[in-house]
Amino acid sequence: MKLLVIAGPPSVGKTSLTKQIIKHFQKEIKIAYLKIDVVKAFEDIELRKEFKILTKKVYSGDLCPDHAGVMIMGDAIEWAESNHTDLFIIESAGLCLRCSPYLNQGLGIIVLSSIAGIHTPEKMGAMVSLADIAVVTKIDLISQAEREVLIQKIKEVHPEIILLETNALQGTSLQRLYDLIEKSPPIDKETLLLKGNPPLGTCTICVGKKEIGWKHHFGVVKKLDGLAADYLYRGE
Question: Does CATH place domain 2-191 in 3.40.50.300?
């Protein structure tokens, strides 16, 4: 089974890209789709109705969506394999910029909207720097000069990334992506690992403390003044 993890912030065109991939492959192979979101999602219903594929969704609730993805990934892969899936597409909620949903196998795709601003890749952290492929969408809405600056910014964050530009609604210029998916090897679920290191640890905010100010918290804490990496550790 091939694995595709599609990540990116909300409203960049992740589902539109997913639709183009399904359209291209649905007559050749069996596809399954999983949507990870926080509170509500309808993409699974939409794709199941339009393409008659196997779909599933999970809500992260109180968990970070990327943390929830790690928790349920083993079960999700077993579910897809038990249904004889050839291509398993996982669409991340894309709300956490410190984590990364990509695995050491399969393909990790970051979807970026060209209208989000030229500095967007620098703000996305591991979601860009650990991806295999960057798909830049809505390219018909900006000038050629803006497109070139955005592409350069992505390359500065991740020089080795494979870059594709598309209008995902029409599916333009995606043949290379289809070729990369076709050539990607099947995964071995026994050796699957996160591609990057998760954040430093669970903080006291994560476990429910509501007080404001670093002096009320323990573990890795951060003050307003100081360098970007100027963290403190409070506690035993």
Answer: yes
